Amino acid sequence: MGPFTYVRAVDPVEAVGVVSADPGAAFLAGGTTQLDLMKDGVLSPEKLVDITRLPLRGIARTGTTIRVGALTTMEELAADPTVAVRVPFVREALLAGASVQLRNMATIGGNLLQRARCRYFRDPSVAACNKRERGSGCAAIDGVQRMHAILGTSPHCVALHASDVAVPLIALDALVHTRGTDGTRTVPLTGFYLPPGDTPDVENVLRRGELITAVEIPLPAERTRTHYLKVRDRASYEFALTSAAVAVELDGTTITGARVALGGVGTVPWRAWDAEDVLRGATVGRDAFREAAEVTLAGARPLPGTAFKVELAKRTLIRALETVTGAP
Amino acid sequence: MKTREEALSRLGASVGVEFGVNGVRRRVGVEGRVTLLDWLRDELGLTGVKKGCDQGACGACTVLVDGKRVVACLMLVAQCDGREVTTVEGVAGVGEAGAVQDAFVRHDAFQCGYCTPGQIMSAIALIGEGRAGTREEIAEFMSGNLCRCGAYPRIRDAIVDAAGGEVG
Amino acid sequence: MTITAPRIGAALDRVEAPLKVTGAALYPNDVSYPGLAHAAPVRATIAAGRVTAIDTAEARAAEGVIAVVTALDAPRLRRGPVTLLGISPPAPLQDDRILHYGQYVAVVVADTAEQARHAASLVAVEYAEDVPMLDIGDPRAEVEDDPWGMDVDRGDLEAGLAEADVVIDETYATPDNTNNPLGLMSTVAVWHGDGSLTVHDATQWPHGVRMSLAETFGVPESRIRVLAPYVGGGFGAGLRAWQHVILAVLAARETGRPVKLVLTRPEMFTGVGYRPESIQRIRIGATRDGRLTALAHEAIAPVALEDDNFEAVSHTSARAYACPNVMTRDRQVRLNIPCPGSMRAPTEAQGNFALESAMDELAVDLGIDPLDLRLRNFAGTDPLTGLPWSSNALRECFARGAELFGWSRRTPEPGSMRDGHWRVGYGLAGASYPPYQVPCQARASLQHDGSAFVRSAATDIGTGTYTVMTQLAAELLGLDVARVRFDLGDTDMPYSPQAGGSGLTGALGNAVRSACRQLLQAFLDVVADDPESPLRGLTLDEVEAGGGGIHRAGDPGSGEAYTAILARHDLAELSADGRSTPPTPDTTAWAGAFGARFVEVRVDADLGVIRVARVVSVIDGGRVLNAKTATSQIVGGTVGGIGQALFEETVTDEGTGRIANATFGDYLIPVNADVPDMEVVFVGGPDTATPLGTKGVGEIGLVGIAAAVANAVHHATGRRLRSLPLTLDALL
User: Count of CB contacts below 8 A, A vs B?
Assistant: First the structure.
């Protein structure tokens, strides 16, 4: 790591002001992405504003939502009783991510902002990376491809968004509360991430210095069943090859409500709107599940090395739906 | 924002940090970029905290911060202000921690020993988290600590034993 | 004197365990010195070409930087010597040529490690790039046939294939795997005022490092001390004095400061060897009743342009089965790659996967149980020499393993065993690891208080050397283990070969045995004319050690204590040297270790996810010196085998030769949840080839796992996967 100025922030407004005003400044929360990328030489801020002392920690139930302070750790959120009971797939996704050590450090706000795991992005000795430097090219497209995205890709970037918990959160229409120099605003997670297009370096709608202060999770109806299924080579401690977050409401064998999102396949956490349309009103069973999977992956643009992910993602979604509906 | 810290912490300059390490109060000035891992090893000589990747991926540098297990390579010393850091040197032979260490010895739960302090700190935390109930649970929640010698089954044996269970 | 008492073989806890569980064991990168400086290398980012310019101005101006040495201005260094492991790696920074990605082109020395690393990132290197040879099939590459003169032709292969009822002819592939010990390879070098040199290094062979440094820096070996009391694993990566060791010593010489150099995890992928990829064609002919008539194993593997690596992948196939017509072939292709090196079970890890997969394919074709097929072709004598084995309990391994595993519950039809979504597969493989031993020395001292100090410059990379040698010496000297200290890892001690090739326990154990016997002889010599001694005039064959002294064989009451002899003769201590040499049995074939591996896998029918659910290993490891540490070796080897089978593949970028997955986040090794509980049983007795009767169990534990897993996956799914690692995409 290069040298930098360390600032311990005590007030959110001031923290936002410092980073907004200084192009060389960055926030430091759990550190599991920021410091990792600084060690790799991918990021080299001149100033780090440590926000971990800001009063943005804690989980509050307010009516039909849970409001999660942005600095709440993944382990803390996973341990929340309301999360465990009402949206168990959020807990499943949290516990499927990283290791306990990292989950004790990583914050929910930081998790949503985690950077791509692409090894071409993470290695500055590779010159061509549009995410690091716009217009420099993409070494990943012609490189080793197994971990790359198949949905939402562009000719300029195929890097995957690797968050697990963002997958059920985007299925739930979670809201991101932020603070910028203009005050606070609320952005739906479904509109938070930006696909790479020809600006892969711009990953979300946050403005410079804008800080996530909380994530609000709307609670689905009590009868909703949820499941998060993660498929990977190792049994633990690995990013997803594919994953599926599903929440359904059933009336007998009829699906009356469905929320579906996929991980491991998209340049952004992938809300499967078309699958939801297929499932809503459908009868529980392999036919509907297969159709939901087919429409979701219809737009996939795999590389030779990621071709397997198309079918794997379909089967992952089908299995998740079978599990959550108890289908035979 | 003109905080005391910023005044102290011009580029590369020292940040004031006051915190506890293994029960001893430390008041130090460190460069902002110094990680907890490097500082514990290089400044305090607590070389039981091991560096296996320096990228948050192997768990060899696992320590407890305010009782929770974290990897010291992805934490700045500057972030530890007001916290209590516990390393393997701070738990030697003490109470339940001692029981974990004894069990690791009895069950030969290591070979080269390099990942062992991290495994032990993680195991101590695991038991405290209430996650040592079954072998499957131990396997899952110890998966953040890599062991290239391949002692995993014996690590599970040791943890089951230390947590008061029956080793299979 | 026989070795029968309980100290040997007992499941003694590791003697160094208290240090390891408290963090007190000092590994090389834990060592510090006053005034310590830190070095960080700069690596080439191309695979072939020349360095045209190196701009160090920014690095030199960076905070804390003491020196920058580059390939364009480094002092001349001699290449290290040829040792029993072959040639030494080339000395670093000696010219402007780039032969592989990751080659060192400069080293930066600074006050702190963070400063050195940062400054290294500021060194700007310009290259004239050539098109590298990276592919094993590159037509420009130099190919060497039979690099070690070990190719085998036995009988008439073509005739054997012609007479076969069934012929298997398949090609198998194994990828590059990287050793990745948890301990980052590290060197701390200190030049003293008198021109002598102390080096702390994460090596498996301190004397090898000393030899290399003496030659490279022109310093007498006697003025160099290499220390490695604890090493964070190695699995072969620590066998050679790799270039970073030279860089650290050079940096210390150039700066006049003690210097520490710790490789980063990504650097561990390009600088300390790795198991090279292989492509292997196997042909097996057999009669309808499963008798092998022909076996051909042809392997090709890459090696670096100007370095060597021993990797006779096909050779063991010539010894594996009773087959009259056999051909093995090895070829090496020279490429622009970092030099491969030994990685746990070198050659067998790759060769066994191909052979034991092919045997399974043959069993399927013939409709014969894979276990039966192996037993029918059991080599009762050594196929290479025709001599009886010095020991061989392979059939017992299979029989015992089948019983423990429940092999008889296996229904032969692929896909016939299921559990919910899981398809269940049972697979097995035979395993062997060849014997290896090279000369070794040790010294044993009996102190005036009756305690013993035994030492040799060996290393304990986790294998249990400290412990088993303590047990052995205690047994041989008739002392309680608590009264014996065995020490190692210091070239000021008697010479030891490397911890590698599963050969150290035999070499060192026999040297310790020799030293202990010489020590007893020294005591007998002291009292030879001593009228006060009940041992007067006795020979070694007439006595036994026990109870802290020596007595007449079979009569514990008839001797005297070491302390009494020492005191009466006014001796503060008595010492003796011992040495071992490799056995040269002429009436038997020196056998090595054998094993049978039984694996249950579970394969998700839809998702293709593969999990190893159960492993039973029965090993003929000769005499087991410590049941606990030996079992750990097999468990650990098995975990390495699971990694090889399911996860591990070092991926190289086409064009640049860059390692695309050089981190623990991207290069997957097994985690706790990937590894099932497993059963390990040892069978067989002491090997007859050496006095100690051990075989070495550091590598046999890995051999056979990849094949057994692949065979089990076939049983579960009907899909034959011939390329490692076995991943779910191949099963969709």
Answer: 108
Number of folded domains in chain B?
A: 2
C-beta atoms of B79 and A52 within 8 A: yes
B111 and B72 assigned to the same domain: no
Whether the link from the prior residue into C725 is cis, omega within 30° of 0, is: yes
- Contact of A125 with chain C, judged by CB distance below 8 Å, is answered with yes
Residue of A6, A40, A54, A91 to mutate, interface with B, max B Cβ within 10 Å: A6
Residues of chain C contacting residue A2, judged by C-beta atoms under 8 Å apart: 118, 121
Residues B67 and B101 in one domain: no
Report how far residue C266's alpha carbon sits from residue C665's, in angstroms, rounded to the nearest whole number. Answer: 11
Q: What is the CATH number of domain A225-325?
A: 3.30.390.50
Cβ-Cβ contacts under 8 Å, A311 against chain C: 732
pLDDT tens digits along C430-465:
999 999 999 999 999 999 999 999 999 999 999 999
Residues (pLDDT < 50) of chain B are 1-11
User: pTM for the complete prediction?
Assistant: 0.97
C126 catalytically annotated:
no
- Other beta carbons within 10 angstroms of residue A223's beta carbon come to 11
Query: Which structural domains are found in chain C, ordered by start?
Result: 31-130+182-233+238-269 (3.90.1170.50), 342-436+587-731 (3.30.365.10), 438-580 (3.30.365.10)
Taking the Cβ of residue C728 and every Cβ of chain A, the question of whether any pair is shorter than 8 Å is answered with yes
Tokens for A241, please give them: 């090859």
DSSP A221: P
Based on the domain organization, do B53 and B104 belong to the same domain?
no
pLDDT tens string C196-243: 999 999 999 999 999 999 999 999 999 999 999 999 999 999 999 999
User: At C688, phi and psi to the nearest 5?
Assistant: -85, -5
- In CATH terms, the fold of domain A5-50 is 3.30.43
Q: Residue A319 and residue C668: Cβ atoms within 8 Å?
A: no
Q: Where are the alpha helices (DSSP H) in C611-704?
A: 627-646
CATH code for the domain of B117: 1.10.150.120
Residues of A in contact with C608 (CB under 8 A): 312
Where among B87, B117, B149 does a domain terminate?
B87
Handedness of CA B59, B61, B63, B65 (dihedral sign): negative
Rounded to whole angstroms, the Cα distance separating A184 from A171 reads: 24
Beta-strand relationship, B68-71 and B84-86: unpaired
Touching B (3+ Cβ pairs <8 A), the chains are A, C
pLDDT tens-digit profile of C282-329?
A: 999 999 999 999 999 999 999 999 999 999 999 999 999 999 999 999
B168 part of a folded domain? no
Residues B23 and B76 in one domain: yes
- Shortest Cα distance from A60 to chain C (angstroms)? 34
Task: Report the gap between the CA of A39 and the closest CA in chain C (Å).
Answer: 9
- Of B44, B61, B87, which one is at a domain's C-terminal end? B87
Residue C21 confidence (pLDDT) above 70: yes
Domain edges within chain A: 5-50, 225-325
Q: Residue C695's beta-bridge partner residues?
A: none
The domain of B118 spans: 95-162
Chains that touch A (3 or more CB pairs under 8 A): B, C
Q: How far is A105 from chain C (nearest CA, A)?
A: 17
Output C79-84 pairs: Cβ under 8 A, ≥24 positions apart. C79/C215, C79/C216, C80/C211, C80/C212, C80/C213, C80/C215, C80/C216, C80/C241, C81/C211, C81/C212, C81/C215, C83/C208, C83/C211, C83/C212, C84/C438, C84/C497
Q: Which of residues 85-114 of B touch C (CB under 8 A)?
A: 87-89, 92-93, 101, 104-106, 108, 110-114
Residue C659, phi then psi, degrees to nearest 5? -80, 120
Mutate to test the interface with B, among A37, A52, A101, A114 (most CBs of B within 10 A): A101
